[in-house]
Amino acid sequence: MGSPARTDLGGVDPGATGEVLVSAVHLTDLHVLDASSPARCEWVELVGHDPLWRPLLHMHRPYDALTTFAVEAHLASIRADPVGPNFHQPYDIAISTGDNIDNAQRNELDAYLALMAGGIAELSAVGCAQDASAHLAGEPWPYWSPDPVIPDAWRDLGYPVVESFIERASAPIHAKGIGVAWTSVPGNHDLMRQGTALSTAALESIAIGPAKSLRQPPDFRPVDPLSLFLDEPEAFSAGPGFPIEANAGRREIDRREWIEAHIAAGALGFTPSHAATGTIDTVIDTEHVRFVLLDTNHPDGDYQGSIGTEQLAWLDQRLSEVDREAGRVAILVSHHGADSLVNVRGHRPDRHLGDDMNEVIHRHPSAIAWLVGHRHLNRIEARPGASGGFWEITTASIIDWPSQARAVEVSRHSDGTIEISCTLLDHDDAPDGLATLHRSLARRFASTGVATRLAGREIDGNVRLVLPPR
User: Fold this and answer.
1) At what angle do helices 255-265 and 106-117 cross, to 10 degrees?
2) CA proximity to 68, closest of 21, 113, 105, 23
3) What's the CA gap between 331 and 292, in Å, rounded?
4) Residue whose C-alpha is closest to residue 411's, from 427, 424, 425, 422
5) What is the pLDDT of residues 40-98, one digit of tens each?
6) 3-state secondary structure of 111
7) Is the separation of the CB atoms in 2 and 461 below 8 Å?
8) I need a labelling partner for 360 at 20 to 30 A (CA). Which of 48, 88, 275, 330 fits?
9) How many CA atoms lie within 13 A of 377 on its CB side?
10) How far apart, in Å, do the first and last CA atoms of the chain sit?
Protein backbone atom coordinates (compact mmCIF):
# COMPACT_ATOMS: atom_id res chain seq x y z
CA MET A 1 0.00 0.00 0.00
CA GLY A 2 2.84 2.37 -0.84
CA SER A 3 0.81 4.73 -3.07
CA PRO A 4 -0.29 8.02 -1.49
CA ALA A 5 -3.90 8.43 -0.38
CA ARG A 6 -6.15 11.28 -1.53
CA THR A 7 -8.85 12.35 0.91
CA ASP A 8 -10.23 15.32 -1.07
CA LEU A 9 -13.76 13.99 -0.49
CA GLY A 10 -13.26 13.40 3.24
CA GLY A 11 -12.43 10.36 5.30
CA VAL A 12 -9.04 9.14 6.44
CA ASP A 13 -6.43 6.85 4.97
CA PRO A 14 -7.58 3.37 6.04
CA GLY A 15 -4.05 2.00 5.92
CA ALA A 16 -4.90 -1.70 6.05
CA THR A 17 -6.32 -3.83 3.25
CA GLY A 18 -10.09 -4.12 2.94
CA GLU A 19 -12.47 -6.47 1.13
CA VAL A 20 -11.91 -6.28 -2.62
CA LEU A 21 -15.12 -5.38 -4.46
CA VAL A 22 -13.82 -5.38 -8.02
CA SER A 23 -10.56 -5.53 -9.94
CA ALA A 24 -10.60 -3.78 -13.33
CA VAL A 25 -8.39 -2.48 -16.11
CA HIS A 26 -9.10 0.88 -17.73
CA LEU A 27 -7.85 1.42 -21.29
CA THR A 28 -8.79 4.35 -23.46
CA ASP A 29 -8.05 6.17 -26.71
CA LEU A 30 -6.32 3.26 -28.39
CA HIS A 31 -6.89 4.69 -31.89
CA VAL A 32 -6.38 1.48 -33.83
CA LEU A 33 -6.11 3.11 -37.24
CA ASP A 34 -5.77 2.61 -40.95
CA ALA A 35 -2.89 4.99 -41.65
CA SER A 36 -3.36 4.63 -45.43
CA SER A 37 -7.02 5.57 -45.57
CA PRO A 38 -7.95 8.18 -48.19
CA ALA A 39 -10.53 9.50 -45.70
CA ARG A 40 -7.74 10.98 -43.59
CA CYS A 41 -6.24 14.45 -44.11
CA GLU A 42 -2.75 14.24 -42.70
CA TRP A 43 -1.64 17.49 -44.30
CA VAL A 44 -3.45 19.48 -41.60
CA GLU A 45 -0.60 18.54 -39.27
CA LEU A 46 1.82 20.35 -41.56
CA VAL A 47 -0.01 23.66 -41.08
CA GLY A 48 -0.92 23.06 -37.44
CA HIS A 49 1.37 25.84 -36.25
CA ASP A 50 -1.20 28.25 -37.71
CA PRO A 51 -3.94 28.94 -35.11
CA LEU A 52 -6.50 28.71 -37.91
CA TRP A 53 -6.00 24.94 -38.17
CA ARG A 54 -5.39 24.00 -34.53
CA PRO A 55 -9.01 23.04 -33.77
CA LEU A 56 -8.53 20.08 -36.15
CA LEU A 57 -5.33 18.69 -34.59
CA HIS A 58 -4.27 15.95 -34.51
CA MET A 59 -5.00 14.54 -37.94
CA HIS A 60 -1.65 12.74 -38.13
CA ARG A 61 1.12 11.49 -35.88
CA PRO A 62 4.40 10.14 -37.21
CA TYR A 63 3.73 6.86 -35.36
CA ASP A 64 0.19 6.32 -36.66
CA ALA A 65 1.05 3.06 -38.42
CA LEU A 66 2.49 1.62 -35.19
CA THR A 67 -0.51 2.16 -32.94
CA THR A 68 -1.93 -1.32 -33.51
CA PHE A 69 1.34 -2.81 -32.24
CA ALA A 70 1.25 -0.63 -29.12
CA VAL A 71 -2.28 -1.85 -28.37
CA GLU A 72 -1.25 -5.47 -28.83
CA ALA A 73 1.72 -4.98 -26.49
CA HIS A 74 -0.57 -3.64 -23.77
CA LEU A 75 -3.05 -6.48 -24.21
CA ALA A 76 -0.25 -9.04 -24.16
CA SER A 77 1.06 -7.58 -20.88
CA ILE A 78 -2.41 -7.79 -19.33
CA ARG A 79 -2.88 -11.33 -20.61
CA ALA A 80 0.48 -12.37 -19.14
CA ASP A 81 -0.31 -10.90 -15.70
CA PRO A 82 -4.11 -10.68 -15.39
CA VAL A 83 -4.28 -9.66 -11.73
CA GLY A 84 -4.56 -6.36 -9.94
CA PRO A 85 -1.12 -5.12 -8.80
CA ASN A 86 -2.21 -4.15 -5.27
CA PHE A 87 -4.61 -6.85 -4.10
CA HIS A 88 -3.55 -9.59 -6.54
CA GLN A 89 -7.13 -10.44 -7.41
CA PRO A 90 -7.72 -11.54 -11.00
CA TYR A 91 -9.20 -8.81 -13.13
CA ASP A 92 -12.97 -9.04 -13.27
CA ILE A 93 -13.18 -6.86 -16.36
CA ALA A 94 -11.21 -4.67 -18.77
CA ILE A 95 -12.99 -1.59 -20.10
CA SER A 96 -11.99 0.61 -23.01
CA THR A 97 -13.59 4.04 -22.79
CA GLY A 98 -13.67 4.92 -26.45
CA ASP A 99 -11.70 6.07 -29.44
CA ASN A 100 -10.90 2.42 -29.78
CA ILE A 101 -10.47 3.11 -33.51
CA ASP A 102 -9.62 6.35 -35.28
CA ASN A 103 -11.71 6.98 -38.37
CA ALA A 104 -15.02 5.12 -37.89
CA GLN A 105 -14.00 2.48 -40.45
CA ARG A 106 -15.09 -1.15 -40.58
CA ASN A 107 -11.56 -2.44 -41.19
CA GLU A 108 -10.33 -0.55 -38.13
CA LEU A 109 -13.16 -2.01 -36.04
CA ASP A 110 -12.31 -5.52 -37.24
CA ALA A 111 -8.67 -5.01 -36.25
CA TYR A 112 -9.57 -3.64 -32.81
CA LEU A 113 -11.93 -6.51 -32.04
CA ALA A 114 -9.36 -9.05 -33.27
CA LEU A 115 -6.85 -7.59 -30.82
CA MET A 116 -9.32 -7.67 -27.92
CA ALA A 117 -10.97 -11.03 -28.58
CA GLY A 118 -8.25 -12.85 -30.51
CA GLY A 119 -7.79 -13.05 -34.26
CA ILE A 120 -5.77 -11.53 -37.07
CA ALA A 121 -5.38 -7.75 -37.05
CA GLU A 122 -3.94 -6.38 -40.26
CA LEU A 123 -3.86 -2.77 -41.44
CA SER A 124 -1.50 -1.99 -44.30
CA ALA A 125 0.90 0.96 -44.05
CA VAL A 126 1.37 1.13 -47.82
CA GLY A 127 0.38 4.62 -48.90
CA CYS A 128 0.57 6.17 -45.45
CA ALA A 129 2.46 9.38 -44.70
CA GLN A 130 5.59 7.39 -43.83
CA ASP A 131 5.53 5.61 -47.20
CA ALA A 132 7.46 7.96 -49.48
CA SER A 133 6.95 5.89 -52.63
CA ALA A 134 5.05 8.88 -54.03
CA HIS A 135 8.04 11.15 -53.29
CA LEU A 136 8.81 13.73 -55.95
CA ALA A 137 12.52 14.02 -56.67
CA GLY A 138 14.00 17.37 -55.81
CA GLU A 139 11.77 18.28 -52.90
CA PRO A 140 11.87 17.07 -49.29
CA TRP A 141 9.18 14.70 -48.10
CA PRO A 142 6.97 16.79 -45.77
CA TYR A 143 6.44 13.97 -43.24
CA TRP A 144 8.84 11.76 -41.34
CA SER A 145 10.22 9.11 -43.67
CA PRO A 146 11.96 6.11 -42.08
CA ASP A 147 13.61 5.44 -45.47
CA PRO A 148 17.26 6.53 -45.34
CA VAL A 149 17.35 7.56 -49.02
CA ILE A 150 14.40 9.94 -48.77
CA PRO A 151 15.14 13.52 -47.71
CA ASP A 152 12.45 14.59 -45.26
CA ALA A 153 11.56 17.53 -43.05
CA TRP A 154 11.76 15.55 -39.79
CA ARG A 155 15.21 13.92 -39.77
CA ASP A 156 16.81 17.02 -38.25
CA LEU A 157 14.29 16.78 -35.39
CA GLY A 158 15.77 13.47 -34.33
CA TYR A 159 13.35 11.08 -36.03
CA PRO A 160 15.23 7.88 -36.87
CA VAL A 161 15.91 5.77 -39.91
CA VAL A 162 14.05 2.47 -39.56
CA GLU A 163 14.83 -0.29 -42.02
CA SER A 164 11.86 -2.04 -43.65
CA PHE A 165 9.42 0.16 -41.74
CA ILE A 166 6.48 -0.14 -44.16
CA GLU A 167 6.82 -3.91 -44.42
CA ARG A 168 7.08 -4.36 -40.65
CA ALA A 169 4.19 -1.98 -39.92
CA SER A 170 2.01 -3.79 -42.47
CA ALA A 171 2.60 -7.25 -40.99
CA PRO A 172 -0.46 -9.06 -39.61
CA ILE A 173 -0.75 -9.48 -35.85
CA HIS A 174 -1.94 -12.91 -34.76
CA ALA A 175 -3.53 -11.72 -31.54
CA LYS A 176 -4.46 -13.99 -28.63
CA GLY A 177 -6.86 -11.48 -27.08
CA ILE A 178 -6.75 -9.66 -23.78
CA GLY A 179 -7.42 -12.81 -21.78
CA VAL A 180 -10.03 -11.35 -19.40
CA ALA A 181 -13.67 -10.35 -19.72
CA TRP A 182 -13.91 -7.01 -21.53
CA THR A 183 -16.16 -4.36 -23.01
CA SER A 184 -16.05 -0.97 -24.72
CA VAL A 185 -17.95 2.26 -25.11
CA PRO A 186 -17.61 4.36 -28.27
CA GLY A 187 -15.75 7.64 -28.46
CA ASN A 188 -16.07 10.28 -31.12
CA HIS A 189 -13.45 8.55 -33.30
CA ASP A 190 -15.44 5.30 -33.22
CA LEU A 191 -18.46 6.88 -34.92
CA MET A 192 -17.17 9.97 -36.76
CA ARG A 193 -14.61 10.59 -39.47
CA GLN A 194 -11.37 11.70 -37.82
CA GLY A 195 -13.42 11.86 -34.63
CA THR A 196 -15.20 15.02 -35.74
CA ALA A 197 -17.45 14.79 -38.80
CA LEU A 198 -20.46 12.69 -39.66
CA SER A 199 -19.65 11.05 -42.97
CA THR A 200 -21.06 12.18 -46.31
CA ALA A 201 -21.66 10.29 -49.54
CA ALA A 202 -18.81 12.21 -51.14
CA LEU A 203 -16.37 11.27 -48.38
CA GLU A 204 -17.47 7.63 -48.47
CA SER A 205 -16.62 7.52 -52.17
CA ILE A 206 -13.15 8.86 -51.39
CA ALA A 207 -12.66 6.49 -48.44
CA ILE A 208 -13.18 3.27 -50.36
CA GLY A 209 -11.62 4.53 -53.58
CA PRO A 210 -8.29 3.98 -55.36
CA ALA A 211 -6.59 7.34 -54.71
CA LYS A 212 -5.13 9.11 -51.70
CA SER A 213 -3.90 12.64 -51.10
CA LEU A 214 -1.31 13.74 -48.56
CA ARG A 215 -1.31 17.34 -49.74
CA GLN A 216 -3.35 20.45 -49.01
CA PRO A 217 -5.81 21.25 -51.79
CA PRO A 218 -4.63 24.22 -53.90
CA ASP A 219 -5.70 27.63 -52.59
CA PHE A 220 -7.60 25.96 -49.78
CA ARG A 221 -7.86 28.26 -46.76
CA PRO A 222 -11.38 28.31 -45.31
CA VAL A 223 -12.32 31.01 -42.82
CA ASP A 224 -13.37 28.38 -40.26
CA PRO A 225 -11.74 24.99 -40.97
CA LEU A 226 -13.54 23.16 -38.16
CA SER A 227 -16.99 24.25 -39.33
CA LEU A 228 -16.17 23.34 -42.93
CA PHE A 229 -14.86 19.93 -41.89
CA LEU A 230 -18.09 19.29 -39.99
CA ASP A 231 -20.18 20.20 -43.03
CA GLU A 232 -17.97 19.10 -45.96
CA PRO A 233 -15.20 16.78 -44.80
CA GLU A 234 -14.60 15.63 -48.36
CA ALA A 235 -13.22 19.09 -49.24
CA PHE A 236 -10.11 18.32 -47.17
CA SER A 237 -9.22 15.29 -49.31
CA ALA A 238 -9.23 17.07 -52.67
CA GLY A 239 -5.49 17.75 -52.91
CA PRO A 240 -3.05 16.20 -55.41
CA GLY A 241 -3.16 12.44 -55.02
CA PHE A 242 -1.57 9.15 -55.98
CA PRO A 243 -3.02 5.68 -56.64
CA ILE A 244 -3.50 3.15 -53.85
CA GLU A 245 -5.42 -0.11 -53.61
CA ALA A 246 -9.14 0.47 -53.14
CA ASN A 247 -10.59 -1.10 -50.00
CA ALA A 248 -14.32 -1.49 -49.32
CA GLY A 249 -13.46 -2.13 -45.67
CA ARG A 250 -12.83 1.58 -45.25
CA ARG A 251 -16.56 2.30 -45.27
CA GLU A 252 -18.06 3.99 -42.25
CA ILE A 253 -19.84 2.14 -39.45
CA ASP A 254 -22.91 3.16 -37.46
CA ARG A 255 -24.07 2.36 -33.94
CA ARG A 256 -25.98 -0.78 -34.87
CA GLU A 257 -23.02 -2.26 -36.69
CA TRP A 258 -20.72 -1.26 -33.83
CA ILE A 259 -22.96 -3.09 -31.35
CA GLU A 260 -23.43 -6.17 -33.55
CA ALA A 261 -19.68 -6.50 -34.03
CA HIS A 262 -19.06 -6.20 -30.29
CA ILE A 263 -21.67 -8.85 -29.53
CA ALA A 264 -20.05 -11.20 -32.06
CA ALA A 265 -16.63 -10.60 -30.48
CA GLY A 266 -17.89 -11.36 -26.96
CA ALA A 267 -17.95 -7.90 -25.41
CA LEU A 268 -19.97 -7.75 -22.20
CA GLY A 269 -23.16 -5.74 -21.74
CA PHE A 270 -24.68 -5.76 -25.21
CA THR A 271 -27.67 -7.78 -26.41
CA PRO A 272 -29.63 -8.10 -29.66
CA SER A 273 -32.10 -5.54 -28.28
CA HIS A 274 -29.29 -2.99 -28.13
CA ALA A 275 -28.44 -3.75 -31.75
CA ALA A 276 -32.07 -3.48 -32.83
CA THR A 277 -32.42 0.02 -31.38
CA GLY A 278 -28.86 1.24 -31.85
CA THR A 279 -28.77 2.07 -28.14
CA ILE A 280 -25.38 1.60 -26.52
CA ASP A 281 -26.21 2.55 -22.91
CA THR A 282 -26.12 -0.58 -20.77
CA VAL A 283 -25.08 -1.99 -17.39
CA ILE A 284 -22.69 -4.74 -16.37
CA ASP A 285 -23.23 -6.16 -12.90
CA THR A 286 -20.56 -7.90 -10.86
CA GLU A 287 -21.13 -9.23 -7.35
CA HIS A 288 -20.54 -5.89 -5.64
CA VAL A 289 -20.30 -3.29 -8.44
CA ARG A 290 -22.53 -2.08 -11.25
CA PHE A 291 -20.76 -0.55 -14.25
CA VAL A 292 -23.03 1.89 -16.10
CA LEU A 293 -21.94 2.38 -19.71
CA LEU A 294 -23.00 5.53 -21.59
CA ASP A 295 -22.65 6.82 -25.15
CA THR A 296 -21.73 10.52 -24.90
CA ASN A 297 -21.27 11.26 -28.61
CA HIS A 298 -23.17 14.27 -29.91
CA PRO A 299 -25.69 13.36 -32.64
CA ASP A 300 -24.78 16.34 -34.83
CA GLY A 301 -21.04 15.67 -34.82
CA ASP A 302 -17.99 17.48 -33.42
CA TYR A 303 -15.44 15.90 -31.13
CA GLN A 304 -16.79 17.10 -27.79
CA GLY A 305 -19.68 15.31 -26.11
CA SER A 306 -23.15 15.75 -24.66
CA ILE A 307 -25.78 13.59 -22.98
CA GLY A 308 -29.45 13.14 -23.87
CA THR A 309 -32.50 13.83 -21.73
CA GLU A 310 -33.65 10.20 -21.96
CA GLN A 311 -30.14 9.02 -21.13
CA LEU A 312 -30.09 11.09 -17.94
CA ALA A 313 -33.45 9.66 -16.88
CA TRP A 314 -32.19 6.14 -17.63
CA LEU A 315 -29.00 6.81 -15.65
CA ASP A 316 -31.03 8.10 -12.71
CA GLN A 317 -33.06 4.88 -12.67
CA ARG A 318 -30.05 2.57 -12.93
CA LEU A 319 -28.24 4.33 -10.08
CA SER A 320 -31.40 4.33 -7.93
CA GLU A 321 -31.50 0.56 -8.29
CA VAL A 322 -27.97 0.34 -6.88
CA ASP A 323 -28.81 2.75 -4.04
CA ARG A 324 -31.48 0.32 -2.87
CA GLU A 325 -29.06 -2.64 -2.66
CA ALA A 326 -27.10 -2.51 0.56
CA GLY A 327 -23.36 -2.76 0.03
CA ARG A 328 -23.37 -2.28 -3.73
CA VAL A 329 -21.65 0.61 -5.52
CA ALA A 330 -21.73 2.00 -9.04
CA ILE A 331 -19.02 3.11 -11.48
CA LEU A 332 -19.94 5.14 -14.54
CA VAL A 333 -18.15 4.57 -17.85
CA SER A 334 -18.12 6.92 -20.86
CA HIS A 335 -15.73 8.51 -23.31
CA HIS A 336 -16.31 12.14 -22.39
CA GLY A 337 -16.04 13.35 -18.81
CA ALA A 338 -17.75 16.36 -17.24
CA ASP A 339 -15.29 18.89 -18.67
CA SER A 340 -15.74 17.48 -22.20
CA LEU A 341 -19.56 17.42 -22.17
CA VAL A 342 -19.68 20.88 -23.74
CA ASN A 343 -21.03 20.28 -27.25
CA VAL A 344 -23.85 22.66 -28.16
CA ARG A 345 -23.83 22.05 -31.91
CA GLY A 346 -27.37 22.31 -33.27
CA HIS A 347 -28.62 23.96 -30.06
CA ARG A 348 -30.69 20.87 -29.30
CA PRO A 349 -32.96 21.13 -26.23
CA ASP A 350 -32.74 17.36 -25.70
CA ARG A 351 -28.98 17.45 -25.12
CA HIS A 352 -27.27 18.31 -21.82
CA LEU A 353 -23.77 19.22 -20.69
CA GLY A 354 -21.47 18.30 -17.81
CA ASP A 355 -23.26 20.17 -15.04
CA ASP A 356 -26.52 18.30 -15.70
CA MET A 357 -24.67 15.00 -15.73
CA ASN A 358 -22.96 15.78 -12.43
CA GLU A 359 -26.29 16.83 -10.89
CA VAL A 360 -27.78 13.41 -11.63
CA ILE A 361 -24.74 11.52 -10.32
CA HIS A 362 -24.73 13.54 -7.11
CA ARG A 363 -28.23 12.29 -6.24
CA HIS A 364 -26.86 8.81 -5.66
CA PRO A 365 -24.60 7.75 -2.79
CA SER A 366 -23.83 4.49 -4.59
CA ALA A 367 -21.93 6.35 -7.36
CA ILE A 368 -18.27 6.29 -6.38
CA ALA A 369 -16.35 6.79 -9.65
CA TRP A 370 -16.58 7.75 -13.31
CA LEU A 371 -14.06 6.28 -15.78
CA VAL A 372 -13.46 8.48 -18.84
CA GLY A 373 -10.98 9.12 -21.64
CA HIS A 374 -10.94 11.62 -24.53
CA ARG A 375 -8.38 14.07 -23.13
CA HIS A 376 -5.30 11.84 -23.62
CA LEU A 377 -3.92 12.59 -20.17
CA ASN A 378 -3.79 11.14 -16.69
CA ARG A 379 -6.06 13.23 -14.48
CA ILE A 380 -8.10 12.36 -11.38
CA GLU A 381 -10.59 14.93 -10.12
CA ALA A 382 -12.60 14.88 -6.92
CA ARG A 383 -16.23 15.79 -7.66
CA PRO A 384 -17.81 16.75 -4.30
CA GLY A 385 -21.59 16.71 -4.00
CA ALA A 386 -24.60 16.23 -1.77
CA SER A 387 -24.40 12.43 -1.73
CA GLY A 388 -20.74 12.44 -0.75
CA GLY A 389 -19.18 12.96 -4.18
CA PHE A 390 -17.29 10.70 -6.56
CA TRP A 391 -13.91 10.44 -8.28
CA GLU A 392 -13.65 11.19 -12.01
CA ILE A 393 -10.75 9.11 -13.32
CA THR A 394 -9.27 10.02 -16.70
CA THR A 395 -6.57 7.72 -18.05
CA ALA A 396 -4.02 8.68 -20.70
CA SER A 397 -4.32 7.35 -24.23
CA ILE A 398 -2.59 4.33 -25.69
CA ILE A 399 -1.80 6.23 -28.92
CA ASP A 400 0.01 9.19 -27.35
CA TRP A 401 2.66 9.59 -24.69
CA PRO A 402 2.81 8.12 -22.08
CA SER A 403 0.87 5.23 -23.68
CA GLN A 404 -0.48 3.79 -20.45
CA ALA A 405 -3.46 1.85 -19.12
CA ARG A 406 -4.64 1.87 -15.50
CA ALA A 407 -5.57 -0.80 -12.96
CA VAL A 408 -8.58 0.22 -10.85
CA GLU A 409 -9.11 -1.89 -7.73
CA VAL A 410 -11.98 -1.07 -5.38
CA SER A 411 -12.09 -2.24 -1.76
CA ARG A 412 -14.32 -1.65 1.28
CA HIS A 413 -12.98 -1.44 4.82
CA SER A 414 -14.67 -2.60 8.00
CA ASP A 415 -15.84 0.93 8.89
CA GLY A 416 -17.46 1.37 5.46
CA THR A 417 -14.66 3.43 3.92
CA ILE A 418 -14.30 2.84 0.18
CA GLU A 419 -10.83 2.86 -1.35
CA ILE A 420 -10.12 2.99 -5.09
CA SER A 421 -6.54 1.95 -5.78
CA CYS A 422 -5.22 3.26 -9.11
CA THR A 423 -2.02 1.99 -10.73
CA LEU A 424 -0.66 3.03 -14.13
CA LEU A 425 0.35 0.15 -16.41
CA ASP A 426 3.06 0.15 -19.09
CA HIS A 427 3.46 -2.51 -21.74
CA ASP A 428 6.47 -4.82 -21.78
CA ASP A 429 7.42 -4.89 -25.46
CA ALA A 430 10.87 -6.04 -26.55
CA PRO A 431 13.52 -3.30 -26.88
CA ASP A 432 13.52 -3.66 -30.67
CA GLY A 433 9.74 -4.08 -30.94
CA LEU A 434 7.41 -1.81 -32.87
CA ALA A 435 5.49 -0.92 -29.70
CA THR A 436 8.73 0.26 -28.13
CA LEU A 437 9.44 2.35 -31.23
CA HIS A 438 5.90 3.73 -31.02
CA ARG A 439 6.43 4.84 -27.43
CA SER A 440 9.77 6.46 -28.28
CA LEU A 441 8.26 8.38 -31.19
CA ALA A 442 5.27 9.42 -29.09
CA ARG A 443 7.63 10.88 -26.50
CA ARG A 444 9.55 12.74 -29.20
CA PHE A 445 6.34 14.05 -30.78
CA ALA A 446 5.33 15.65 -27.49
CA SER A 447 7.38 18.65 -26.47
CA THR A 448 8.63 18.56 -22.87
CA GLY A 449 5.70 20.60 -21.62
CA VAL A 450 3.09 18.54 -23.46
CA ALA A 451 4.63 15.25 -22.33
CA THR A 452 4.55 16.37 -18.71
CA ARG A 453 0.93 17.49 -18.98
CA LEU A 454 -0.19 14.22 -20.59
CA ALA A 455 1.61 12.12 -17.99
CA GLY A 456 -0.25 14.06 -15.29
CA ARG A 457 0.56 15.13 -11.79
CA GLU A 458 1.81 12.73 -9.14
CA ILE A 459 -1.70 12.66 -7.66
CA ASP A 460 -3.10 11.54 -11.04
CA GLY A 461 -1.04 8.36 -11.24
CA ASN A 462 -0.41 5.65 -8.66
CA VAL A 463 -2.75 6.76 -5.93
CA ARG A 464 -5.43 5.54 -3.53
CA LEU A 465 -8.72 7.44 -3.61
CA VAL A 466 -10.69 7.48 -0.36
CA LEU A 467 -14.44 7.81 0.08
CA PRO A 468 -15.77 8.03 3.65
CA PRO A 469 -18.64 5.78 4.80
CA ARG A 470 -21.96 6.87 3.37
Assistant:
1) 20
2) 113
3) 6
4) 422
5) 999 999 999 999 999 999 999 999 999 999 999 999 999 999 999 999 999 999 999 99
6) helix
7) no
8) 275
9) 18
10) 23
